[in-house]
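Margin note: ligand = phosphoenolpyruvate.
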Amino acid sequence: MILQGKSVFGGIAVGKLALYRKRDDQVKRKKISDVEAEIRRFEKARKQAKEQLGTLYEKALKEVGEVNAMIFEVHQMMLDDLDYIESITNMIRTQGVNAEFAAATAGDNFSQMFAAMEDDYMRERAADVRDISNRLIAVLQGTASGGIDGEEPVILLADDLAPSETVQLDKSRVLSFVTRGGSTNSHTAILARTMNIPALIGVDFFGSGSKRQDETSAEEDRFAEDGWPDWDGKTGIVDGYTGKLYIEPDEKTLSEYRAKKEADEQKRRLLQELKGKANVTSDGREINLYANIGSVSDAAGALANDAGGIGLFRSEFLYLEAEDYPGEEVQFAAYKTVAENMAGKKVIIRTLDIGADKQADYFGLAREDNPAMGYRAIRICLERRDIFKTQLRAIYRASYYGTISIMFPMIISVGEVRQIKEIIAEVKAELNAEGFLYRDCELGIMIETPAAVMISELLAREVDFFSVGTNDLTQYTLAIDRQNPKLDNIYDSHHEAILRMIRMVVENGHKENCWVGICGELGADTTLTETFIRMGIDELSVTPSMILPVRDAIRKSRAFSQDFAR
Ligand code: PEP
Ligand code: MG
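Resulting structure:
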């Protein structure tokens, strides 16, 4: 079966498919008519949960040693506990309820019982029994760890993935993303690019209105009980160039794609020859080429691809990964690690850009009708100063360990920049009083609102650099929600309005001695590299895997041309 979607990142993936169903936190009570079938379903899930725990035990044994791995053995034993099993099967039999509900109730009852015990060891088992019940429920709901429990990396199929879910996935186990929803410029798509894996969006798994390209046999068309296709564990191919997803391809297609993948890798190896070479045009203009990252571990990809620095560290992902506000020490450790790993190369940390599609529950942000234009980013930071100051303190403390610049998102006025500077002065005074060491950091702003473009001459007097955020700038200029899949076809970052704006920002920035870069996705568009250079751009910051292709494009460009009329 071949399904058609839209590619957000190229490349080929061949591997096992895993369906990622959203975990339903609220376990619903349902009436069951066939009680014995429900008990069999529970038994099957219990067996599967035990197998998962066995795999986890083996893995932990290798990675963290026997003492730490023991917990998975304990959990396996608990799943064999007769009292626990009977409590669930009795509830299904006598009350005629679904297995999920019975497992959740037994989990609650047993954990309360353990929590009330005198013995410390037994009290600690309360969390374990809750854990095994959750595992059972996840298996029953088909949401076990997002479908990526095994050792083997998988092609992940999801309805849609929020950025907060994407950052929490075990990235070493994902070969490719395929989603039904999503848009090319969503943060989930950006994360797929950072992970350097092929990704498709808009693939209609359920077949209604599907762009299926061939006939399918009844056998292939089977759907699982919950209405999802029955593809878990089957072989798939993702073609990130054509946007095609193959389910159970024949041998001929498989070998063709294996060959294409090999050719891709060959191309990548050729690009490796550009490592260590300058980002210089054929007529001698050099620009900076930096990497965009979303986590501390992404810095490895930046270095491996020979980035000259980090042009955008999306710090909000630290917040999205966490269950509660990350404190000063946690953030300090993260920023310090990146600064140290980059060994003196520039690291531009963008302060918290939460809100819109990037939501963390603990912020308690109200639902808004128009979140992209709502309470987000610097607007939150200037109001909730405790959060902002914690982050600034952590960044300044980390600045001592490398070369850190700070950048502020979603700026629309000079007044905002002045307020930021006042807060920075307070932070520095506090750090001085407490005896912390820090360096002075270059300060910059994102240019991602039309307002910032129009007053860029005034803003340039306030800061050291600008970085054009073309993702938001496109959405605000063209009045096209970057999250709306229906508008993806007309979301056009090449629009003349955007190109003119970038040129205007460069000119205004340079008048005031302010360097100008691009960190939106457009910066990695090699069809525009020469155009940007001719506009006078000083820096491009791109997803790590695009560093070498962009370097290649820079080296093939000419900075000056007599016929350049733009
Ligand atoms: C942008 O808007 O272009 C940008 C780089 O920021 P983000 O994509 O994180 O909104
Ligand atoms: Mg933005």
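The chain is about 45% helix and 15% strand.
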